[in-house]
Amino acid sequence: MNNQPSSSPADRLARTLGRRRARETRLKIYGILAVATGLVLLTVLLSSILLLGYRAFQQTYIALDIHFDPQVIAPDGRLDLDSLRGADYSALIRRALQDKFPEVTGRRSKRSLYRLLSVGAPNQLRKMVLADSHLIGTTRTVWLIAHSDVDMYMKGYFEQNGPSQQGRLKDAQTGWIEQLAAEDRLEKRFNWVFFTSGDSREPELAGILGALMGSIYAIGLTLALSFPLGVAAAVYLEEFAPKKNFWVDLIEVNINNLAAVPSIVFGLLGLAVYLNFFGLPRSTPLVGGLVLTLMTLPTIIIASRAALKAVPPWIREAALGVGASKMQMVTDHVLPLALPGMLTGAIIGIAQALGETAPLLMIGMVAFIVDIPQGLTDPATALPVQIYLWADSAERGFVERAAAAILVLLLFMLIMNALAIILRRRFERRW
Amino acid sequence: MQPDTLILILLGLSACAYYIGIRRALAVSGGHPRKLHSLPRYYGYFAVLWCALPALLILILWLALDDKVITQLVIAALPEEVRELPEERLNLFFNQVRNALAGVIPPRDPTVQAAAEHYRNLQAISGGCLTALTLVAAIAGAIWARNRIRPDLWARNQVEKILRFFLILSSVLAILTTIGIVLSVLFESLRFFKQVPLPDFLFGLHWSPQIAIRPGQVGSSGAFGFIPLLAGTLLISAIAMLVAVPLGLLAAIYLAEFAHRKVRAATKPLLEVLAGVPTVVYGFFAALVVAPFLHGLGETVALEISFESALGAGLVMGIMIIPFVSSLSDDVIHAVPQNLRDGAYALGATRAEAITQVVIPAALPGIVGGVLLAVSRAIGETMIVVMAAGLSANLTLNPLESVTTITVQIVGLLVGDQEFDSPKTLAAFALGLVLFLITLSLNVLALHVVRKYREEYE
Question: What is the pTM of this model?
């Protein structure tokens, strides 16, 4: 074999080189495919949520000619606030619908006619009358909020899923809807309700404001507590702690471990300590914020330590050299230089806390709450929890709103991350 | 007064104290600030600390304890026959009182009504005392500090001492949190293991906590077997890792070794977006997009795929973990020094050979450590499985069937009405303890692998 010229090293190299080159190309292609798959998956994730959710930003309204009949609103002629508030506004709507569709008779078909409108529609009229009592006695064309089923029909969900899904709407109802649409009495408008109200049992009346406020309170508390505490802990560990000390080592190991503890375990901690031991009120942003604080602390401490490490030692030496105390060196020189980096880390930690759901389930923030929370101790839910609740619901209208709420949540995450990037760019310093 | 308004008032008082402290310091120095030991602002801080700290301490302690004390006082004032009730009945009674207080359910029982009345009165008294006490403490502290300010007062040292104490306290918080986790989970778990023997929990093959709480049922032990949950968790995590490890690793290799700098700068942050997406969004995606898609796919090939299949949850969890694996591996591959690659090239290796035979082996400990961390994250992940995996504990290896996981069961057991003496709710803490121990040991193992087998090049 050896003396055959074809197996000289150069020849063998030439023979295998093609194969080896091909292997290299393959590895490269696999890599490109992996990156592309990741990006495609990201696109699929975002676009499917966008597709599911964008329609929730619009809501169907029905125009009816409402006669604000004094006989109905104030049958005894009293026009004080209480009787205006307690008047039977749904009677006005029923009458307007009957005037519109005089051919509908029979108790059952009338009821399905009334079902075209949301149960929140009378409330709209109440607000109008309370705002302007001169309306009484006049006839106005009012755009009233439609029932979720009508909304779903108008958005084409039922056509997509075939007639089998149409069970919720009767043929007669679709006929009325088509008739109203033909008369331009049906319109999709921007869904203000979604941004201005709390949760509701009716999809068309459900909004994210309550959950958003709950999130803001909880996250605000988290930021207020975890940033100072995290920075303080980082400063101590970086600047003051003795090196090679059992306790300091213990703290370090602890912080690293806490960063990797599953979030739901923090929920269990909150349940056992804050709720059962200290008896803090359930379902409140107060407890939510306290739990999220413990969860984000390790992240903030680690980021803050990195920021402190990046400040060069000669800054410290110079400060000490002109007679500053060690604390003055930290507070007046090192900390201001490290602060942008710390803030970046804090924003990223807070963004994570904003999207966190599992620990909040443990402390009861999954309760159904209609009211908008006014403070830290009001029962509330949070934005991601609201998404979870709506996604769990069988009704199409809620699923659509869950996707829309996700879009709002992602927008907040985007803003926070952009803020972190801007901060980093703006204050980045090369020594 | 509400605690938040009280805190706002305290803030205002502290601002005043700062001003007073500085004014006083300048006054006692007789117009020569140089005679002072510290800079004037330190006298301000000194006054602020004396004004705010005692008051805050009172506020926090009071708020933490007042509910307990009031409850005890109300119980003490209850009629004899109510006080004699067994503990659960007493708790029930107190729930009625709380409901009456919240105005949710108007009380029918006059004793409840009276207790609620008493409770409300005590609360009002407590609130008044708290307000008075904090404000007095704040003002007294400020005045005391003001009177102590003299030119030879070492204000800076005192302020720094307190600040330093606060710094130490903040770092100790990490230890306290860990202790809190361990104790709270451990205590409730011990109560659980008193009712359900430990071997039954660890080796039981049957999990159905719902049956066990039916009243009158004896021996709930058989229903708390942990094995199906562990199997389900591992199955879903394994699927997730099958997705995430190859994709993440190949992406990391490409980005670190082949990709142009600009491509890398553009793609890496995009991939990391996947890590920043909240898990509830993945859960939504899994439950409403991936699960129906898989189900439909199964139908076209006449395969029964459950809507809550382990496959769906695992796939989506895998997507979530891709960036985790890729950025950790990317960092490690980057850390392999260039001269190792150059050496390989000098011996005639192609780029692929240098990567597979030199760079990857050198980076392996770091990669393994990263993968272990990713596994621990998959095991502890909650929202995806809560929304996309099932609730029934099937002991199966078939990824097309529905399985349940540890975290799903914790959420299932603890969301809703709870009483903390049934094995059902206590089981959640036992599961939490197991989860904590599993993830903790994985993390420790990962750190150990990285530390022990890391190649030192310098």
Answer: 0.88
